[in-house]
Amino acid sequence: NKKIYYINDKLFAVSVHGKLRCKSCHVGLDEIPHTNVKKVDCSSNCHIKEPSTGKEFSHENMVNKYQKSVHGVDAKTNPKRFPEDLPTCKYCHDNPMYRPPRDIWGTSEALSNETLARCMGCHTASQWAERFYSHFTHRMRKRRSQEEVVRLCTSCHEDKEKMARHGLESIETYKDTFHWIQVEYGVENAPDCISCHVPLGYSAHDIRPRTDRISPINMTNRVKTCSNPGGMQSCHAGATKEFATGRVHAYGMKAQIMAANNNKDLMQDQDITLIVERAEKDFSPAEVFHYKILKLIRLFYKLLIASIISFMLVHQVLDYMATRRHHKSH
After folding, report:
1. Window from 80-89, 193-202, 207-216 with minimum mean pLDDT
2. Which domain range does residue 31 map to?
3. How many domains does the chain have?
4. CA angle, residues 49, 27, 203, in degrees to nearest 5
5. Residue 113 falls within a domain, yes or no?
6. CA torsion 184→160→221→257, rounded to 10°?
7. What pTM was estimated for this model as a whole?
8. DSSP for 261-305?
9. Phi and psi of 15, rounded to 5°?
10. What is the pLDDT of residues 33-57, one digit of tens each?
C-alpha cells in the first residue's frame, strides 16, 4: 500500500495538533531526505505548557493507564500473548479538526465571539485563549455516534480467531441483544460499548477485565454501571442488585463449549486452550443450565413456526384443490 505524505497546512493548522511543529512528535527530521526518523512516542513530553500546572504537556499518564488496561502491551507489568493483535494509539485516534462552536451547539457566531472576548479578559494572549477555547468546546461534544463507537470496537472484536487467541468471544454476543437493536435503529439513548465498559468516572484508556474489582462490569460495580448516576445517558435508574446480575451479552461460544462438555470441534483450527479455560471460569453450572433451556425454547419456537407455516401451506393447497373441483363440477 502506498502512503501519502502530503499535509494540507491550512487543515492541519485548525487540528488538535495544529500548533505543534513536525519535530515535536517525529524525532529525527534533521535532514532531507529523512534517514533516521524514530517511531512516534505518544508518551513523550510536548513542547507546550499544560496551563493548569505550568509543566510540559504529555500523554504519558494516559499511556501508562493504557498499558495496564486490557488493550495494553507492557511486557513487564502486563504481559500479553499475541501483542501484535492489540491496538496502538493511532488505531483509535486520528488528528481531528476543531469545529466552530456554532457547528456543535447551533449557537450564533456573535455569541461565540462574545464568550471568547470574556475569556480574554483574564487570558490576554489571544492565541492562547482562542486555542484552548476551541479545545474545550471541541471536547464538549461526542466524538462518535453510538453506531460509530460499535463500528470501531467491532473492527477488532468481530474477528473470531483473534478473539479466541485472547480467550474472548466475538462481537456477535452484543449484536444479539436489545442494546444493539436500539443502536441500529438510531435510538438517541441507546447504549454502545463505551456506555457499560467506560461509564462516568472511568477512562477509555483504562478498560479492565470484568474479573478486576475496579472494572465497571465487575459484579460489585454493576448496579452503579446500569443506573449510571450523574451521567448524560439515562439508563436503568432503578437498577437493583438482582437486575444487575443478569446477562448483558447473549450466550455465545463459551456457553456452547460448556454445554458440549468442552467439545473442541466447535473451534476448528483455532487456539482453543485459553477460551476453554475462560469458559470454565465464566460459567457456573446454573448458567449452563439456563443456556440449555434457552436452546430448547428456541428449538420449540422454530418447530412451532415451521409447523404453523406448513399447516397454512397445506391448508391453502387443499383449499385451492377444493375450489378447482367445485368449478369443474359447475
Report:
1. 80-89
2. 1-58
3. 2
4. 55
5. no
6. 120
7. 0.71
8. TS-GGGGTTS--HHHHHHHHHH--HHHHHHHHHHHHHHHHHHHHH
9. -95, 175
10. 877 888 888 877 776 777 667 777 7
